[in-house]
Q: What sequence folds into this?
């Protein structure tokens, strides 16, 4: 089954404790993105990747890092989480440019930073 | 910069009634337009998209949307709503220049009364 998986689905952590949210897709897609969803703000892009070793900032990249060492994986790293990063995070992939193609979303990761 | 406005935060309709969700966009060029649906606890799923051609597009689950360039709108419609349509709906505009991303509206929460 074609899908985007994220782990963990739920995470509660404390300020400053580094964490990684994993994302994997099995559709051989070139493009992958991370979004955060906050009430009243919709989804905002954090980072995206056009291919292995090629990443770029989205609208809200501060406080986040990403890497793309393999085509199927696109982890999101919070080196020193803060409470304002409490949010619902989605990973997405698409075969071509995200702005011009269907994006396939993972189920989401709900992060709480205390 | 591109933007998307969904003026209705919440909408309640009776099962069997018709539905129209409004979406207005701001973008300098011909837009790529999308409607996504998010069921509770789920990721986003594409309902339909418009790239070019026929301005009335058909999607899954009986939804359709009409692109009106003169009004900068891309409203979503369904002639008869089912209880299972209760969800949050997001309109998005895609750009493929610097950024390669979707810009989402803030969403419309649909409640269906039985």
A:
């Amino acid at each position: 089954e074609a899908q985007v998986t994220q782990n963990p689905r739920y995470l509660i952590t404390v300020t400053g404790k580094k964490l990684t949210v994993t994302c994997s897709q099995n559709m051989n897609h070139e493009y992958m993105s991370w979004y955060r969803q906050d009430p009243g703000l919709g989804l905002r892009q954090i980072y995206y990747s056009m291919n292995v070793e090629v990443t770029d900032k989205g609208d809200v990249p501060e406080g986040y890092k990403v890497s793309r060492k393999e085509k199927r994986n696109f982890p999101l790293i919070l080196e020193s989480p803060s409470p304002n990063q409490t949010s619902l995070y989605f990973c997405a992939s698409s075969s071509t440019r995200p702005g011009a193609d269907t994006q396939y979303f993972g189920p989401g990761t709900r992060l709480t930073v205390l | 910069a591109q933007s998307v406005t969904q003026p209705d935060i919440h909408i309640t309709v009776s099962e069997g009634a018709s539905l129209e969700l409004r979406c207005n966009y701001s973008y300098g060029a011909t837009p790529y337009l999308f409607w996504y649906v998010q069921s509770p606890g789920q990721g986003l799923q594409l309902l339909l998209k418009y790239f070019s051609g026929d301005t009335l597009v058909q999607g899954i689950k009986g939804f359709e949307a009409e692109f009106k360039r003169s009004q900068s709108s891309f409203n979503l419609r369904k002639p008869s709503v089912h209880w299972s349509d209760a969800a949050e709906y997001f309109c998005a505009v895609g750009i493929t220049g610097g950024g390669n991303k979707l810009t989402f509206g803030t969403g419309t929460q649909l409640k269906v009364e039985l």
In short: The longest strand of chain B covers residues 87-95. The two ends of chain B are 41 Å apart (CA to CA). DSSP finds no helices and twelve strands in chain B. The CA atoms of residues 48 and 59 of chain B lie 4 Å apart.
